[in-house]
Each structure stands twice: as structure tokens, then as C-alpha cells.
Design brief:
Keywords: DNA-binding, Transcription, Transcription regulation
Helix content: 10-25%
CATH architecture of the largest domain: 3-Layer(aba) Sandwich
Family: Belongs to the LysR transcriptional regulatory family.
Pfam family, one: LysR_substrate
CATH superfamily of the largest domain: Periplasmic binding protein-like II
Radius of gyration: 35 Å
Protein name: LysR substrate-binding domain-containing protein
Organism: Cryobacterium roopkundense
Strand content: 15-25%
Length: 268
């Protein structure tokens, strides 16, 4: 049974485009792809459950290598009849009087202006096991949440609405793995998420210390090089086999070449 390659991803990330490319390039190594909670997006690497993890920053990057992939727009999610329905984009200041169904530290920009935090009138959060429960509370009008757009889309329902919120920093999705365990398979997946073609090869280039300072990596031979060389050899051989032709002597300056008139007589 071939050894598998495990990829973890946090909610809201869609790794399908990368796993599809992997299946085309590495059919010999089956994938094990699974979703993880935000609280476990790094621990799955440290305990060996995954070779790479698609994470939502920030994370504790100790022992890890991290490559940023793309940013996510923050949105506010509220009950369908909420006033945000009338806006294309909501200013964060307009949400200062709202009750946030998250820990305030999850949205520091809101925490710093929130009336319920400043006045110490914030009431305890209701019991909520997961984001489905959170959305149930949002739909009931208990409060709002501010999350990445991908999360709002993933857990969206007909009785809630979402709008982009201005004043909250974008979040970033990244690829993370344990630096000391950068295997060939990990390198292959890094190449896929970075958009490298299957023809590109990291192994083809010599190590940096073996190159002359400032020298470029050697060009990888193209498939057409051999055909071009063969065509050139044919042209050279044909030129060598062709009999030499004496070049016609040009008339001396100031003289005209005699021509023949009609009937064959020569005239000057």
C-alpha cells in the first residue's frame, strides 16, 4: 500500500484545485485530506497527523515554515432584518453598539471601540458548540459576528445576511509545515500551491554554494533542442555537398556589357 500524504485545512479553505493537480502529477501517492478546527491547525503538524496544513494566520510559527497564499475580506453577519442590509459596506464604527457573539479578542478592532466592552456591560455568551450554533444565535437576532467572507459563505443560511466591514484587517490563508521535515513530497506540494509547472525541477539546479557568485542556474534543456540540432546538421551537410558555383564577374566600372539585338546581331 503506497504511503499517503496528509493535508489539513482550516474551515473556509477550499484545497480542491491543489489536490486535483497533485492527483494528476503524483498518482502513486494517495492523499489524506481533512478539515481541522482553528485551535488544531498547528497541532496537526506537531503530532504528525498532517505533513502540511492550510492555516489562517496568525499562528505560533515556532518550528514552522509558512508561505502566505491569499487574503480574506472580513464581513459582518447579522439577522436578515438588520440595518446592515441597506449598506454595501459597513463601517466598523457603526457596529460599536452591537453585541458580538465572539470573544472580543478575536476582533481587536471592534473590541477597542465596543460600547459593551468600554462600559463593562457585556453579557455572557450563550452556550454554542460550533459555528452552526453561532449562526443560529445570529439568525435569532441575539448578536452579530465578524468573520472572513469564506466562513460566512460556508455557514451561510437564508435567515442571515453579510456585508463587507471596513475597518477590520483582512485575514490571510497560508501553507505551513515543520521546517525540519521538509520532504520531497512537501516540496512538491509547495510547488503546486505556488503555481510551478510539472516541468520545473528544484533538483535540476545545483546548490547555491556550488554556483559562481552572481551566476544564473543552468538552463534546463528543452525538448526541441535535439530536433533543432538535427535540422542544423542536415542543413550543414547539404551545403557541403552542393557543387561550388563560380561567381559571375561583374563589369568594370564605366563599361557597358554588349547586348544582342533581335535577330542575333551584337550591338554596342
Amino acid at each position: 500500500m503506497p504511503v499517503s500524504f496528509s493535508i489539513a485545512f482550516v474551515a473556509g479553505v477550499t484545497p480542491t484545485k491543489w489536490t486535483r493537480i497533485w492527483a494528476e502529477r503524483r498518482p502513486d501517492v494517495p492523499l489524506n485530506v481533512f478539515r481541522t478546527e482553528t485551535s488544531e491547525q498547528v497541532s496537526v503538524l506537531l503530532d504528525g497527523r498532517a505533513e502540511v496544513s492550510l492555516v489562517r494566520l496568525p499562528i505560533d510559527e515556532a518550528q514552522l515554515s509558512v508561505i502566505g497564499l491569499y487574503s480574506e475580506v472580513p464581513v459582518v453577519v447579522a439577522a436578515k432584518g438588520h440595518a446592515i442590509a441597506d449598506a454595501d459596506t459597513v463601517a466598523l464604527e457603526d457596529l460599536a453598539d452591537e453585541h458580538l457573539l465572539q470573544h472580543p479578542d478575536e476582533v481587536p478592532a471592534w473590541r477597542d471601540i465596543a460600547v459593551e466592552v468600554r462600559d463593562e456591560t457585556r453579557r455572557p455568551l450563550p452556550a454554542m458548540r460550533d459555528l452552526d450554533d453561532v449562526m443560529e444565535q445570529v439568525a435569532a437576532g441575539v448578536g452579530i459576528i465578524i468573520v472572513p467572507h469564506s466562513i460566512a459563505r460556508l455557514y451561510g443560511r437564508k435567515d442571515v445576511i453579510s456585508r463587507p466591514v471596513d475597518g477590520v484587517p483582512e485575514t490571510q490563508i497560508a501553507l505551513a509545515w515543520i521546517t525540519a521535515e521538509t520532504t520531497d513530497d512537501v516540496e512538491e506540494f509547495i510547488g503546486i500551491v505556488r503555481g510551478r509547472s510539472s516541468a520545473s525541477s528544484r533538483a535540476a539546479a545545483p546548490p547555491e554554494e556550488e554556483r559562481a557568485p552572481g551566476a544564473k542556474p543552468p538552463r534546463k534543456p528543452k525538448k526541441t533542442d535535439k530536433a533543432k540540432a538535427a535540422a542544423k546538421a542536415i542543413r550543414v551537410a547539404a551545403a557541403q555537398a552542393k557543387p561550388a558555383v563560380r561567381k559571375r564577374q561583374e563589369a568594370a566600372p564605366g563599361r557597358t556589357r554588349p547586348t544582342r539585338a533581335k535577330g542575333g546581331k551584337r550591338r554596342n
